[in-house]
Amino acid sequence: MEDSGSPILSTATVVVLLILFYGITLYVALRIRRKKENADAYMTAGNKVGFGVAAASMTATWIWASSLYASATSGYNYGISGPIHYGLWGALMILFIYPFGRRIRQIAPRAHTLAEIMRARHGSSSQLLLAGSNVVGSIMSLMTNFVAGGALIAMFSPLSFVHGVIAVATGVLLYTFWSGFRASALTDVMQVLAMLLLVGIIIPIIFFAAGFPEAFESGSANLSPEQGNFFSSEAFLNQGAPYIAAVLAYAIGNQTIAQRLFAVREDLIKKTFVTATVGYGAMVIGVGMLGVLALYLGVEPAGGDSNNLVPQMAAEYLPTALIALFLIIIIGALSSTADSDLSALSSIVMADIYGQNIAKRGRANPQTMLFVGRMTMVLATAAAVIVAGLQLDILDMLVLVGALWGALVFPVIASFYWQKVTNRAFVTAVLTALAVFLPVRFDWLPMETAFFAVMVDLLNAVGIGVILGLMAFGFFGLRAGQVTGVLATVISLPLTFGWMHEYTVLSASLVAYAVSTLVCIGMSVRSGASFDFSVISRRVGDFDERRSETDQDAPDDADADDRETAERS
Fold it and tell me: Region (Disordered) spans which residues (predicted)?
């Protein structure tokens, strides 16, 4: 790699590239801007997005800084199985969304956020709990993408990390600010085409410039036995399994994903998510192979930071012209997720905080909502830029946020199917799971004490059963889900007992799933609630159309459970 004192691209070149890239995306956003903006279109594009745009947007949104950099890190740490674990499980989680997505759209065809449905189903406490988790998750996602952009620009040019972060943040905010989700979705099409160029042309050029396939023969001595084993248990337990748990939670709890679910035409949901599954898997595994190549070549990450592996390999093996193209492609990839986070945050604040909790019920002003949404984007961008200065590890952030959302997965899914789930059960399950998750994740419990180790291993087995059971339930129905969940728990218990607690990240995720599920089921089974799902479509709809107070009469607090029961009588 060239000396960091002699940047590959000049400041003027990088500035021109960024102006061209963000200038074109801003032009697209301004072209679709309406003279009289519509709050619902700003959030979900009127629920009428077609297949091509929806599939591209879903793919581009799921491929963010973590998907590119962390996949390469996984390949560098675990060998060829690393990118497979990262890309395959992430792709399957996109596929996992669609059976639940069809149910969600069936009961709430005009929704804007999942939290909005939770209010109609339970009350404001459940709504704000889900909305709050998304605010935290989206700001962390914004931060990781800004960090990736800043580091990339600093590596290739004389500009500093801070300059790069500010440039990316400003560019994304400019074009997303005007048209919200519609700008995000349409620019995603351009960005996913650029990513196809990365995987189809640029990565093969790097491979052959580095001496492929001879490099894989001569460099095999650089691998440990575990890195050379495609079926490495270390790779699965440290990367594959935690990522399965994390991305499952992202699939259900993340507003950026839900926003695309609500935006696409209902009859195109399956087609869209199946296509995005294939696109994501191919692109992410392809980029991750750069990490595997770096491992075989014996490359040391610049500054000891594995997040630098992807740009480092590009700087080493690409000619200057292709490095400029590579820079723009990666900037486009992280921008596609950053603009999705801004759109998601604006929708949460518009619909969940202002539209249903600050404004009088059914009286939210759509123009005020637009102002609130745009100001949310500005404040979120500023907050993410400030946090980006911490330069936290991207892969750690991904797993941490995903595990936090794991506490929400079962209560959220159960609330869409099971009439007996109550507001108290939902809130208590999530808060209890978080209370147990945090000490396990940050090693606050003395695992050398038999009691704690045994309890965590027991909950790990239950967590495995919950995850596999939910997957089976989504695709094959309730009976298959119940049988799979029970069998998976029974089989896992003797296999994981006595050692699983040593894998902190995986254990914390599984514990979150297990505790939230056990508490939610335990409290709901004893409840007398029998919720009528047909009322949700009347309580959740367009803000631009005046709705009666009766249609907005959703439960607001923990007393909602009693009103739900009475309403059905």
Answer: 543-569
Residue-wise pLDDT for 155-192, tens only, equals 899 999 899 999 999 999 998 887 788 888 888 888 88
Domain count, the chain: 1
Per DSSP, the three-state class of 206 is helix
CA distances 39 to 152, 422, 542, Å, are 35, 31, 9
Residue at token pair 């890190």: 73
Domain that holds residue 374: 11-30+37-393
Residue 78 CA to residue 74 CA, distance in Å, equals: 6
- Report the DSSP beta bridge partners of residue 49: 264
Residue 350 contacts residue 376 (beta carbons within 8 Å): yes
Q: What percent of the chain has pLDDT over 90?
A: 32
Taking only the tens place, the pLDDT of each residue in 1-21 is: 444 445 789 999 999 999 999
Q: Please tell me the distance from the alpha carbon of residue 539 to that of residue 41, in angstroms, as a whole number.
A: 19
- pLDDT digit string, tens, across residues 554-565: 444 434 444 444
Domain membership of residue 324 (yes or no) is yes
Residue 338 backbone phi and psi in degrees, to 5: -60, -40
Query: pTM here?
Result: 0.82
- Three-state DSSP at 49 gives strand
The answer to whether 85 and 239 are in contact (CB under 8 A) is yes
Residues 6+ apart with CB under 8 A from 74: 82, 83, 85, 86, 235, 239, 288, 291, 395
Cis peptide before 213 (omega within 30 of 0): yes
395: DSSP letter = H
Residue 360 DSSP class: P
Q: Which CATH number does the domain housing residue 90 bear?
A: 1.20.1730.10
